[in-house]
Structure formats: structure tokens, C-alpha cells
Amino acid sequence: MNPTAPxxxxxxxxxxxxxxxxxxxxxxxxxxxxxxxxxxxxxIEHPRQGPVLFDTGYSPRFFSETRRWPAxxxxxxxxxxxxxxxxxxxxxxxxxIAPADVRFIILSHFHxxxxxxxxxxxxxxxxxxxxxLAAVRGKSGFAALRAGYLPGLLPPDFLARGRxxxxxxxxxxxxxxxxxxxxxDIFGDGTLLGVSLPGHAVGQMGLxxxxxxxxxxxxxxxACWHSRACREFILPHPAVLRILPDSAAxxxxxxxxxxxxxxRPELHIIPSHCPEWAATLSR
Length: 283
Known about the structure:
Largest sheet: 6 strands, mixed
Strand order of the largest sheet: 1-2-3-4-5-6
Structural class: alpha/beta
Helix content: 25-40%
Number of strands: 12
């Protein structure tokens, strides 16, 4: 499994909405001024598999699914702003790709800001870690809210169109990915390697790839929320750590990301909510 060899891909980073939070919550010791937390996703144009999405960000369906109690608490805790032109479907369409032509959507985990746009891609196969779905499946009411999960964001045929990645599919990675040791070769051609990034959500997965312009990339999902956290090993506020499903695993994952960045500074680690990466979109 080696995405640094042939078949460089074309990666396009996009933002589908944002929420806000005090900087001090995501970067311990930061300011208490609220900052934009973008919901980033990635379009990956694969030479043989066609258009692939990594997550989908928010969509208008988020607002309809949070009208009733207790889901109505969700947008109060994390207020969401989304323009119609910012949805994953609209941005893919603007790039000359019909949403119906997106063949695969790789999901890092099942929080609403990552699965919000699934309904807009009627022909996509959903690829996700089995453990991530198992952690939220069947949850409703306050249990779903605590898990950041809105069941109505998953299409009715989600399971029929899904490919659940099993633990046995994660095999040893080459030494260049250390300290990450195991990954899954999504298409069996070495171009996209899923890697477990536990802590923020049960079963969360990131994605190693090689972009034709950027070079090596790790789409790091919510393993951290800001590139500074990875570069400098800055933990979030203790209150945030207390509400994570596995605080110890989160800290271990962040430490591994920091180690990987230190050892391989040419590797672009892209967290799904990093304002620094969002700022590059306008350029």
C-alpha cells in the first residue's frame, strides 16, 4: 500500500458551512473570542474510480432535521451558517460534475457536519468504518444528540449502498506512515489509504493520498480541529476532553499526528475544521 508511487490524484478542498466556537475551546490557552469553525470536505478525482468525496459537510437537511426536540438543541450548541452555493452538491456541480456521477463517498465518522449532504448524491456508494456506524446506529433522542448524530441525515438505502470497512481489512502500513501502523487500501490500488484516528468519535478514519499538486496529504477529519494543534501539540480545553468518547485515545492520536508532522513536514495534514486551510480556498 503506497500512494506515493503512481496515480497521483486531484484533490479539491471545499467548505460546506461553518459553526463558531471560542478559540480557547479548540486550542488550550487561546482567546475566548469566537472564531469560525469551517466544515471542510474533499473532492478527489480518481483516474479510474471517478469522483470521490471525503465527507460532505452540512446541507439544508441539517436544519430540517433539527427542528424538533431534543435535536433542536444541536444548532443552539453549534450554530450553523450555510449558503445554498456552499453545499457539497452545489460545489461539485460548479466544477462540472453532476452529483449523480459521484461514485463514492468515504465517511470519516457520522457526526452531522460530515454526513449532512448524503441525500444529494443518489448513486454514490458509502464507504465507512464499521465501528463508526455501530457506535451510533439505533440511537435516537438525547442518546443521538450526545453522539452528534442525526439519524435522518442517512438515506433510507444507506446500508444497501454501504461498504462497511471491517477491522480485519486494516493491515500493516509502510514505515513512512509511522507512528500509524495499520491502514486499509480503499480501492486496492494504493491510492487511498484509510487510517484509524480514534478519540473524537468511535471508529473515526482519516485518509492518506497523494495530490498531483500538494504531494502527500492526510485528510485528518476531527483528529484535531486546527493545524496549530497538530504542529505544536496543543490539546483542546479540558471541558472538551471531558465530553469526548475516549479522551485518552484522542490525546494519543494527536500525539501521533504531531510526531508524523515533525518527522515528515512535507506531508500536508488537513483537519476538517481548520481555519488555516479554509483560508486557502479563496486563493
